[in-house]
Amino acid sequence: MKFGIFYEISVPRPWERETEYEVYQNCLEQVRLADELGFDQVWAVEHHFLEEYSHCSAPEIFLTACAMQTKNIRIGRGIVVCVPQFNNPIKAAEVAATMDLVSGGRLEFGTGRSATWTELGGMGADPDETKKTWDEWVRIIPKMWTQERFGYQGRAFSMPTRAVLPKPYQKPHPPMWVAVTSPGTELDAADRGMGSLGLTFGGFSEQDKKIAEYRRRIKYCDPVGSFVNEQVNTVNFLFCHEDDEYGTKTGLRLSGTFNYLAEQLLAARQAYPSRSYPNLGLLPALRREATAPAVGQIPEGLAIGNPDRIIECIRKWEAVGVDRINFLLNAVETVPQEQVLASLRLFAKEVMPKFQKQPAGASAAGGA
Amino acid sequence: MPLVGTRDVTPLGPLSPLLPSFETPHWELRGATVLQVMYELEEEGMLSLLPPALHPTIPPTVLFNVTSVPDSPAGPFTLAEVRVGCRSAARPRAFLVRGYTDSAGASTELRTHWGYPVGEAAVVLRKGYDRVHAIVEVDGRTILDVALMNPEPISGGDVQYLANMNLARVDRNGSELLRLVQVDPDFVFHRADRGTPRLLAFEADAWGIDGAVPYFPISASVTTCDITMPQIRYLVDPAKPPLQAIETVGRS
């Protein structure tokens, strides 16, 4: 089991001159501490226009700053929106390779397609097209990395032969992941030999079934990259405190705040009827499952409370087949920074030693 | 935390329907046609359109719905609604201040049982092969002219209708109070099409949402469906903050 931290970078109103600056600086301080404490990875999302929920529209910059201030922690681009109105596949390959070079081969490359009308509409993207362009991009980007020169004539993207430069430091290329929010996307990941970067919480039984099917399907995959990245990465909340009651109470406040913000998003399917965004694909709806239990209960699988409770929780995740857990540490600064840092320290001291630690990326057949 | 509305809806009280009780008849409306067109609203009016109990969507949105019902206990009717997209705490909803039907009988039933703040008007929904077109006229004045162009079949499962928050007066413990009545019908879809939204005329003040300026088209769909009208389960106090505003309707 490997542990990481995960950033939406949510910023509370009012947005005064210092607000975003302080949130970003807090995040960087957390990343530096996480690196010192032995966390394996830091991931940052790409979102646009999502007021308060996520002010992380340039994760490649944030993650480069993370890389420059740390030594070992891997940096997860989570995710590159593979939609032409958001990004360009050549530029995405170039930026990723540069991040990999300047970080000394620490990049994890996540891919996805956006799930809100706020973003898709804002960028002028066609919701019907996003799955298709994602599928095209994930097949060509690794070729841009591994072929000296690359040319392509495709459905939504074409280019004459050029040398896409630089090339990544990791050979043959960084591990590739798919953001999984819609049901069934974990199977898309499996079929393409990509890691499953779970961005929803879900309960143990739900994840157990999904992971089992992912493992079964990936055996027969047609890998888009030069190697199969069979790994299941999931997201959780973290608030670790010696006092279990205080820890769970604060953790519930964190998860509740985050969930409330997530529910405010204008999901693609709420605005634009499309098979591309099926009914159960709502990111907030899935998050609700794990963050809105009966009154007085602690949601299943959340890493909140004292170390013993969190160890028990993570053992269950380990048992259902999760390889990595990334923790959300805050939401609109609900938890004071010193408490976030203390929570990380306590987790590293009491919880991490209970789980065998391997170098991140070791299970990927390559990417080292 | 998310923005909330600033609108004082108290002045709308006298015009709002009165629910004498929360008992609802069983209405199954078979073979209904529902046109839904969605636009983004200019953000200037985002907060002033909603009461403090509701969050605006980001971006702010408005939904034009015209529902043609071939048969009901009150006879056939066509209902036109212009609703502001919102969140009631964490739930997606649509706020209705004023709507119209072409049937006095249906208007009375919808007002009395589900708190629809509707009046009478000439409401027409025309379904063609190249477009689905709805027009609402009051006293010869066109207050809504909206259409879906170039319909293409999609799955009914891809369409989502938001539950209404109808502004109405209700009896709570012997007091007549202004509340948002949550109305969340069940839909069984038989056919669905999607097309290009087109808004040709819209008078916001006729719908009780002065200042609403639709400017950016999002989507248009038309469905054939069976609608089951719901029981009233939740109310919202429009003046309270979202997390404190929700009330449960008790039943004996």
Please characterize this protein's 3D structure.
- The complex is a heterodimer of chains A (368) and B (252).
- Chain A is α/β, with parallel strands linked by helices.
- Chain A contains twelve helices and eleven strands.
- In chain A, strand 1 (2-7), helix 1 and strand 2 (41-44) form a beta-alpha-beta unit.
- Chain A starts with a strand and ends in a 17-residue tail after the last helix.
- In chain B, 4% of the residues lie in helices and 55% in strands.
- The model of chain B has no long low-confidence stretch (mean pLDDT 96).
- Chain B has a single domain (10-247), classed as Beta Barrel (Acetoacetate decarboxylase-like).
- Chain B is mostly beta strands and 252 residues long.
- The A-B interface holds A 12-13, 49-52, 117-118, 121-122, 257, 259-261, 263-266, 269-275, 277-279, 284, 288, 332 and B 1-3, 38, 40, 55, 57-59, 61, 85, 87, 89-92, 154-155, 157-160, 162, 192, 194, 216, 218-219, 221.
CATH superfamily of chain A: Luciferase-like domain
Q: What is the fold named in CATH at topology level of chain A?
A: TIM Barrel
Helix-strand category of chain B? mainly beta
Low-confidence stretches of chain A are 280-286, 362-368
Residue windows where pLDDT falls under 50 for at least 5 positions of chain B: none
